[in-house]
Amino acid sequence: MASHDSQLRHLVRGYLGEARQCFIREDYGKSYAFYLLVIKLAPVVKASVEKEFCETWKHWSAKLFSLGKFKELIELYQQGCDAFYECENLHLLMAELFFRMEQKLPAHSTYKRALQMNSSNMATLECIDNLCREMIDNWTYPMLNDKERNFKFHEAIRDKILKMKEQGKEVHVIDIGSGTGIMSMFAAKHGATTVTACEMSPTMSNLGKEIIEGNGFKDQIVSLNCLSTDIHLQENDGSNILPHKASVVISETLDAGVFGEGIIKTIDHAWKKLLFPPEEGGSVIPSKVIVNVICVESEDIHQKHCGDTTFEFTPNTEESNNILLTSKVGVGLQPDNEEMLGPNFFSDGSQPEPYTSERISRIKHKLLSNYHTIQEVNFNDPQQISSIAERKPTTINIQLPITADGFLDAVVLCFDLAVDDNQVPKYVITTKIDSGCCWEQAVYPIRHIDASTNKINFTRLHVKKSDIVELNLTQHHNKIVLENCIHQDTSMKKKVLPQNLMTDNFFQNLTVFSLQEDKVVLFNDRKFTQSCKKAILRFMETTNSTSKTLNGNMCDHNGASIQPNGILNNMEELPDENSGYTSQDTFISVLDMTSPFSRLPLELTQCHKRVSIHKGLSIGTNTEQKFATHLGLKYVICNGNLNEKYDALFVDIVEQSGLLHQEAFNNIAHARTLLHPNGKIFPTRVRLMGMVFESEELLQRCSVPNIDQTIGVEIGNYLQEYQATTLSHINMNKTRFTALSECVDCMAIDLNNTDISSICDCETKTDVKITHSGFAHGIFIWSILELDECTTFDTSNSWQQCAIMFGKNSIDVAAGDCLTLEMKRNLSYFTFNILDKT
After folding, report:
1. Cis amide prior to 564 (ω within 30 degrees)
2. What is the Cα–Cα distance from 524 to 597, expressed in whole angstroms?
3. Distance of alpha carbon 228 from alpha carbon 756, whole angstroms
4. Residue 479 CB: number of other CB atoms within 10 A?
5. What is the C-alpha separation between 165 and 421, in angstroms, rounded?
6. What are phi and psi of 749, to 5 degrees?
7. If you write DSSP's letter for every residue of 329-363 in order, what string do you get?
8. Which of 5, 75, 142, 776 shows its CA 20 to 30 Å from the CA of 33?
9. This model's pTM is above 0.85
């Protein structure tokens, strides 16, 4: 017996040595096999080799992933779980691989396993929260909570099935774009002979199957994970088989602009391949759509799409007089011609769109015309659908009489959807501005340029009652594009407002920067930059600068000597003799590391002749560099090799979405290496503020709280596990909520604290006094940026906020209660827990 034990120990030592040697040789497959042998022969050594085993598993799993051997990878994970189920890192590694394989449901469950091993791991909690937001599209919850929409589809489906059954017909239904399966379940509930749910998203298809089975319709509904164009009739071999032609197709694949999700091609294919013809009883739900447009005034829309390139000063650069800053919405730039940009047209790489969407009722606006119908599409007319699907784009020209004085900032598109096919429809859903339905409205921003001055810039177009606005649109199978807008005033004078900046000759001599909407909004934000300007002036009064003198030189990102920001603030010239300084006076050197398209460096250049500004770019794309150059800004690439030191650095700590900037804390750590010993980071401190609220609106943005909303089918309970706790892009001024508490300071982040760990991780407890009775759904979070002791910027006034939802921990509160909240933060991610109520 002793001899056998000795031989076993010798064998285990040998296998362990082989495992380590194979790992060194990067033969991870063999190394992993040897480790499995070691664990099987001597379970007692598991604890001592766990770290080595997991490291080998990591490398071997990465190799299998790179080879596309996903089946073997999943088997490898199961082997790893059998050996070290309690290894948190094993589950985290596999969750990431599942995510990269687009298997989001397995990724979610695997992250949950990791959380069981370490429930306080903030990085895992953040991964789960981010994954939940990716798994379920942000429009899913509003649609499921739109009771009127659900009811009208339910009634139309019921009426159609009952009518066909009364005629003695079998009812075979295909639900295209089935999502959670709600329409399929309506059809099964009312006795459809067969129901096929077709969903292209693997995540939503699997989730839909779970919901369908949970509601007891597993045997009545067949789920297919594919495009409807990949479905074949039974006579064909292969997957995605349809047993016979359908008598009813349900497809609600409409976006705010009606055709953007491809409903025309979807229905055209269905009529040609999947549906009985109309004369044999085939039909589509919804039946018809009527498309309408209206003229709207809204400064909010103008600020999102038209950059204000007028300045209180004139940059000393010829190019700056011919700059236009615009969003990518409706500029004529399409995804397939991005590489065809002209020499004066620069893009930030974001996806161009012919229109954007907005819930107009939630922003300040004014209607300038009546609704005008531009098109009517009958989904039950195969010839019309085929014509739209196959023909070249057609022109739609309409004239809209202006009914009120105002500024024409946008043309808004909405639609009326006839769900049933009665001659006079019983069930109609409208997306008009005051409708309150789940769809937003499509927005075509109007760009008007005043070319009467030397400085070209977007301005708002003033229109008067009785003026005429003529719209030139083109109808494609998947979109409606606004090409031109022509304004005719009461004197019959016409002004053409070309919306296609790529093809119109007027723009060929201008430099156009086409950016994401949030970047345009940031550029137009003067309130924050004015606050920064005040802070830097006060900093100049109190600091003893360690920068070089006016006659000294600074270095660019290549190490070449340059004059500091010579173009904009004339630092290359000696100060005027009456200015009060000499050539040996010191100046303040500032590095702006905020967004590449921030207005901040332009404002700071006006501070003082002794302020030298560099724009810091993290990567320095061609568009970013051109933007800085055209505005006369000196830029440096902050890639870790920068030799120059600065007196002041500005960093982005808060996104305009309300969240903390993801890269902020890496930027702060790097910023410290660029500061003089007495230098300062701006903002100096960030205070995270909170307020407990009750809001049915926000609750319905992340959950389905009531089965009545979904007309008796249970969906909310199945989605609850995938509920994101953090909601961003909240505008408290445009959200319906009840404030249940006073505003409280939840946490402060001192960006000039030399203890980096205290900046990156923090945990606080806060007592919140309840001022109004209600149901606490969550807590709003926003920031107050302290630029110095006297200057602060409250982001709740002009930026957006975020909300942390309490979810299952939501509780009833009464005025006079006190909630003890625990806030934990790791880098940019934070959580709240209710510890006590007294």
Report:
1. no
2. 10
3. 53
4. 19
5. 17
6. -120, 115
7. BTSS--GGGGGG--TTEEE-SPPPBS-EEE-GGGS
8. 5
9. yes
